[in-house]
Structures are given as structure tokens and as C-alpha cells.
Amino acid sequence: MSFKKMVMLLLFLISCSGKASFILLPMDEISQQNHLKAYGITYWCLDKNYKAYWLLNYRGGSFLLPDTDQIRKECQIRGVSFEILSDGEQEAILNDISSPSQNMESVLLEKAPKIAVYTPKGKQPWDDAVTLVLTYAEIPFTPIYDQEVLSDKLLLYDWLHLHHEDFTGQYGKFYGAYRNAPWYIEQKAAAETLAQQLGFSKVAQEKGAVAKKIRDFVIGGGFMFAMCSATDSFDIALASDGIDICEAMFDGDPSEASYQSKLNYNNSFAFKNFTLERKPEQYEFSDIDMTLKRQIPPDKDYFTLMEFSAKWDPIPSMLCQNHTQLVKGFMGQTTAFDTNVIKSNILVLGSCELNGEVRYLHGQKGKGMFSFYSGHDPEDFQHQVGDPPTVLDLHPNSPGYRLILNNVLFPAAKKKKQKT
Asked: Which interval of the chain is the signal sequence (predicted)?
């Protein structure tokens, strides 16, 4: 073989060895132009039966995907930053991640979870952050409501989000401010009609039955994510099962005498020993929420994400992946959780150190898991009823919205056998 041919062969072999085989979606603060849509790309790959890896704590929780023209094109269309890696570069990254000295881990994502969003039919006077970000990230979901839940349609899904909801039958405790508003009157009438159609004499009884079906979904192995008032009202509905806590303007008759002492905290998911708010005109369910107890100026309202061992605690690590540990606070009907009423088996994922309140928590129930995230909209500090929805094109790198998408994606992770 001539010297010229040998040089050409060597150059060919070098080019082959350096051929790109993987795409990295970097999730650090500097490199990624659209963090939220990067989750959508990863979900899309799983839905197309591509393998994907979540690189926990590597450059903000980056995603590793196979290099195909189809994936490159999809990233370009959606405006997601990506980097091309050779086999050698990919191997070096995974070797670095696997080192015992590094708090990082590579997690295989197996399949796209089937997503349901519990949300009423028809337009609401408020929007929902999860529905907004799923739509923006182009992650498909199915809206369901009481009819589907009570007829066991939850069995069709892996992941459920609870929309801004009141499971106690008190219509969001909007009575004080909005009882004469047309939307409140219409929603109350619609809820009463639906309850009767489903065989219940009261809305509170029907919502309680829905809450118990959702509880069973989680116990059976489902993943549940709730925000704002869907968090505490869900636990209150479970703890007050069989007890009338509603006043006459909500259900036509007085509440049960001494109902506070009859609550069963063993039934609730995350909260214990809470005291219900008896005043019907008070826009508050209980002392779980910190809204009326906090005095934090907006410019100092931040919460800190906890740091976990990625190798030993991959689930909380996945749920906390972000390009910053400090997340801007935001209010809601349920703005934050009082530390004193959180059960001891609950894992705190994010808290505000100024007053010790909890903003983000996680727990297990039976074979399933749940996350509660306080506040209404991560990019609207004090979202009011009737305000226009947040335009996520203006917040493509939102740390607060990333936490929602962490929850959407983590059910796709391959389950590892316990070491004990």
C-alpha cells in the first residue's frame, strides 16, 4: 500500500472514531436557551422509543440523547440548545459521572409516562401553571375530571396533576370576595348538578369520593403532583372523610358539631395536626398555609432547593434538578406549608430559610409517590383571579417551572433495585 493511501486510510479511521453518536441537551444556566422545551424534546424522544439518559447534577441536570437527524431537527425547530458528542466524549462524561467522588448519576429514562391533568371542563377565572408548561413544552396530556376519576379511568395513566382545586366542597373558599360574581354562581351550580348526576347529595361528598379514588391511584403505584390549594384541600378532604365541615352557604346545612376533634390525620398524605379555618368568608382552608402568617418582602422571597446524593437518593435528586438552587418565591391561595404540621416521613425538597416555611415536598404512599408544590404561578408573584395567563415565551429558563417538569419526567426513570 502506498504512503498516500495509508495516510488517507488513517484519516478515514480518525474521522470514523470521532463521529458524533450522541446529543447533549445542556441544562446549565449559560448554555441552554430554552430549558422548558428541553424537557419536551426528551419526552418526545421517549415517545419515539429512543433511549435517553438524565445526567443528574451534571451541568444542571442535562439530558443525553442518541444523535439522529430527526432529533437534531426537532431541537432546531423548538429552539433547544444541543451539543454533539463523539463516542469518546460521551464515555468521558459518563466515567466522570460514575466516579464515587462526584455527586452525579446517570439515570436511564425508559418510556414516556401517560399524563392526566385533573381539571374541570370549561373556562376558569384562573389558569394552571402545569397545563401552561405542558402545553409550552409540547408534552401531551389528557384532561380528566370527576366522571373519569370515579369510573376508574386513572388506571390508564402513570402521572396525575391536580389542577387548582378544592376537594372540601367549599368552592375554593371564594365566598367572602366572590359570592356575587357570575363565575362563582355558575361554578357552584355546575358543581351541584354534577354531584347529583354522579349520585351524591352534596358536592363535599362527591369531592371526597374523588379524593379517595386519587388516593387509591397513588397507593397502587401512580405518581401525583399537586400545586396551590389542591395540596392542602386534598389532605383536608381525606382527614375529614365522613365529617361535615361545610357551613350552610356551601351545602345547605350547618357544619358538624366539634368537627375539628374528629379529623383523622392518619388518612392524610403530608400534613398532621392542622386546624381548619371555620369562618366561611375567610379565604383560607387551615393553618397548613403560611399566606397570612408570613411577612417576607417580594424582593427577598426566595426558597432554596435541598441537595441530595444523586447516587443514593436519585428520586429527590431528579425532583430538584435545576440550574440554580435559589428559586424565586410566588404566592397563591396556598403560598407555603407550615413546618409544624408536616409529617415526619415527608421529604422537604425546598424551603424558605427566612421563616422556615416549606415550599416543595415529596412523599411515598403505598407503591406510589406524590409531590406538593405551593404557590400558583412560578413567574407571577401574586397572581389574582382574572389575571391573564403567564406567557412562557418570556420565561423559557424559569427555575420554578422546571420543578414542575422534573415531576413530569421522573416517572420515566428506570427503577433500580434497593440495596437493602
From this structure: 1-20
